Every structure is written in C-alpha cells, then in structure tokens.
Predict the structure of Carboxypeptidase.
Amino acid sequence: MKQKITPLLLLLITTLAYAQNRTLPTDTTITTTHEVTVNNNRFSYTATTGTQPVWGEDDTPVASLFYTYYERNGIKDRANRPLVISFNGGPGSASVWMHLAYTGPRVLNIDDEGYPVQPYGFKENPHSILDVADIVYVNPVNTGYSRLIETEDRKAKKEDFFGVNADIKYLADWINTFVSRIGRWRSPKYLIGESYGTTRVSGLALELQNRQWMYLNGVILVSPTELGIERDGPVEIANRLPYFAAAAWYHKMLPADLQQKDLEEVLPEVENYAVNELLPALVKGGFLDEARKKSIASRMARYSGLSEKVILQHNLEVPFRYFWKELLRDKEGYTIGRLDSRYLGIDRKDAGDSPDYNAELTSWLHSFTPAINHYLREELKFETDVKYNMFGPVHPWDRSDNHTGDNLRQAMAQNPSLHVMIQSGYFDGATTYFNAKYTMWQMDPSGKLRDRLRFEAYRSGHMMYLRREDLKTANDHIREFILSSVPGKDQSVKYE
C-alpha cells in the first residue's frame, strides 16, 4: 500500500533531508497515563507531550513548538473544566521551571528550601493545581525542543519571533490552534507567566481577545517584569529599598530592634518610608540639603544593612549588583543571589562592585537540567537526540513598543470576567516584590479594576515555589483564584 505524500509530510521529508543537525517532527504527540495524589485525593491523568506547528502566512509550518499537556481523567464535563496555559520567561527560557517545580503533577527532588539533593530526579507534587484545572506548558521558539523550520528555499525570519510583540502575535495563533485541537473553546481559560513570561501573558490577554476572539477568566503574573510601565529615575531608586530590607533581614544584617521583628512587620515601615520620604528627597537630586541627605543616608543604612558611608558614596543610589556584593562582604565574605538572595556565592576576591556569578541560577540549573531530561524521556516517553534548551538563542530581542501592562488593563476593561493575580518573592532582587506592587498600582490609574487585582508575596525569591512551604501556599492561592473567578452557571458577563 502506497503512503500518501501530503504537503506536510513533504515539508517534513524536505526539512529532514536538508538539515544536517538533529531534528524533530514538526507535528507529533506521545501520550501516557499516570496517577498523582493532590490534597489527599488520588486520581489519574493523561500526559500528552509533543510538537505543534506555528503556521506561516502561506499555511506552511515556520516553526514547531514543544509542549506538554496534562488532562485529569474521569471529567465528564470539560466545558466547565478550567484550562491553564503556562509560560516561563527569559526571554529564551524553557517551560521547565514551573512545569517541574510548581503547578505540574511532578516536582524536583530538592530539599525544603529548594537546594539540590542527589540522586537527581522528581517526585509527585501533592500541591499541583491539576486537581482543579488542566494545564499545558508551552516552549516558545528555540526553548526546550521548540525550533524554527528552515528549508533550502526558505530561511527563518527571526524578527517574526524574537521580540515583545512578535512573540505575542505568533503565540496567540499557536494557542488558537491548540485550543481548537483539544476541543476546549468552551472551557474557562487562564494564562500564567513567570518573569518575562508575565510580559508575554499580559500582551497575550489582549491579543487573544482582540485578534483571536478568545476571552480569558484570569491571568497570573509570577515575579512580574515592569510590563512597559515606566519607573526610571527617583521612583526606580526608591523602589529598591524594601527589597534591600528584606534581603538584609534574611541575612540578619538589620539593627537588633528591626531584626527581632517579623519580616512582615518590618516591610510596611520600609515601604512607607520609601514612598513618602525617600522618593521626595531623591526628586531634588544634587540640590538636596546636605543635612537632609545625611539623614536620608542614615535611615537607608538602617533599612538596608549597608553602611551610611557607602550610601553617601553612591549619592543615595546604590545599584543592585553592588548590594549583592556588599551586604555580606565584611561579615562572611559571601555574595548573595540576584534572583533569590537567600543563596550565597564565593567570588575570587572580596573587592569589587558586583558578584562573579549568579549563585542561585547555578544552583537551579544543577537540579533542573538532569531532572527534566530524565523526566521527559523516562516518564513521558518522549525520546530524542535534540538538545533540550534550558535557555535558547533568541537574541537580539526587540524590546521596543512594550505596552503589555496597558494591554492587560485594556483586556480587563473590555472583559468584566478577567481577573489578575500577582505572586512575588520577598527575596527576589531581579523582579522585586515592591516593583510588582508598583506595577499593580500603576496598571489601572482609574482604580476601577482594583477589585479584580490581587497581590500575594512569599518568603522566598524569584521562583518562590522552590521553598516547600511556599509551594503549598502559592498553589493554594492559584487554586483559590481559579475557583473564585470561574463564573457561576448562567451568570451574565456585564458591569452592573
């Protein structure tokens, strides 16, 4: 019997013949069945992992995205079953982080604070949100196993993928195809993004709504970026202080009277000072009275664990990188992590104004990389020689025309059902918790959407879910958010 050569098969054959490197089929799936116990309830689920095309203007594949889709078994009515579409960030980062450490049915084999333990691997996630929602983890182009498709006659146009708005446009098309294929147009839908993924999902909320006519129920922003909301100058400088205080509190570098208080007693005081006293002082720049400048430096020293001298040497503007190098310089000689300042690093020399490396990221790659490669191959049965890109080549990335925060606000205004939750770690020095608060405050200048905006913070860093206590709490918050934002039966979508 002859094999029919379809256009898609012909393209695949051509691609494989032309490529000299390892490749994956453009469109393929592997399906397996598993079980997990969540909140003391054991149930089975189906995992579908594979690739799905990104369709070009000529209706031929221009890229292929790798994804993993989890669907709880035994659900009779999928129309009322929420679907969560999950992205990580970078840009250029694979979906591995939230997939194998946060919301999915399996989590890393790590200790209670998130540090690697051996043997490397994974275990059941008793806090996964799979009990209340199905989840798909998506890898944008050049992350995970996702790749551009090139033939002899066609070179990939990287500008169609590597930029704020290009990324949003092609991913919205891909989501439309995916939702259609799995038959989930009627389901309540949620986007979750971490770090740069928050830029991505904020833009996708409006793009899906206005270009794909797909309306969402919720967007979850994990360790959000600035979302195109300006905060240069005095605002950016003042906003650093609450994070400085949190990191200093963790490392016991605050004065005794502050150190003996709980973190969540200290931070409101620092936030109030940053907004109501530090910010107005910084606005005056070099014309700030010297006595007032010294008074400000003294208070900043009290809240940051740094010396008054160092703060004055920086004219009240201490860079993040200097803080990570300086905080423990004289006490222990360690540097502290950028994405999670609980982590410690060792530099070649104590002198200098920035750490040699990111202590937290090396620790995370230590545990995530072997685990995801083992998990995909051994448990999900997806076998390939293609390299899984933890971080893929996506640069240069076009960051111009970033209005994603306002796009999210516009999507909320147009859609009364759309709710937003922000999740941040107190010890995150890259996308700080106080900047996340500022983003929320500035996203809706009218204040009319504030009842649909929710903020949660945790005693950990950028990936707050690596700490066992926060893994449970943060997933519980997502679960509550989803259940509270799914409309009731026959509930009208309108402003009253």
Summary: The chain has a mean pLDDT of 94. The CA atoms of residues 348 and 356 lie 8 Å apart. Residues 7-229+366-485 form a domain with the Rossmann fold fold (CATH 3.40.50.1820).
